[in-house]
Amino acid sequence: MTSVLIYTETGLDIGLGHVTRMLHLAHALQEAGADVGSWPHRPTAATGWMYRRGIPMGPSSAAIGVIDVMNWDNRMVDALRSAVDKLVVVVGAGQDEYGETANLTVYQTGWKVPTDWPSLSGPAHLILGPEYARQSDVPRNRDALVVFGAAVPWSYSVGVAACLSGGRLAGTLVVPPYHAHEFGHTKLPPGFDMICEPWSLRELQASHCVQVGSVGMSLYEAAAMGCYPIVVGRSEDHVRTGLRLHELGYCACVGLQAATSEGEIASGAISELAFLRHE
Question: Helix, strand, coil % (nearest 5) of the chain?
């Protein structure tokens, strides 16, 4: 049995994209017969998320290590590298070069990344669960799913929903885990429901026409489910990724979140929805 250690992270400034991706991978590896656990050397908030969803704390060493983080720490990576025979680095945004560190780099992009080192990229290598598949036979009875994640101020999410409501759209506003305390204090705009801390967005994506949110893991999930994403990026790297995906038809990228008003992204969503319905 192949042993695999996973190291990932989550948090208010990070969101759930990295840990969600690693859970998809961990469950697939378990089904394939691998012995999968979280790296015990440096537990993070993501370790608890993994544990509650069937991924235990792993041993001190393993055949394969997988790392998927936003905050790269050379000492931490060196420690994991010394605990495993082979290291796989998963890159969520951008095209960073880890050829000297990793035995394999897996880019989470919608396009092929040319490299001089062992790597995988493109749509076939996006880490999604098998349940994420386009739902053509499910009635989409809601307009817009608003889901920005914890790193975007909650007031921004509510403002976008209000602008969409003003444009006579109905939908659902998702409260991310790190904003759960806002659940009882938010005045919902007309036509919008609110759901708190869903682990999976899949069923919501299946019933909504468009998703309004950030560049990240949920963009790929929404696109796979046929819920067209209208997105802003939280960083310049995310914006570059979003614009490239825009060119490829995965989404509509409006720009940098900090420079985009709630009304601007809502207007983009209203226009895209009108275009999709006209088609």
Answer: 40, 25, 40
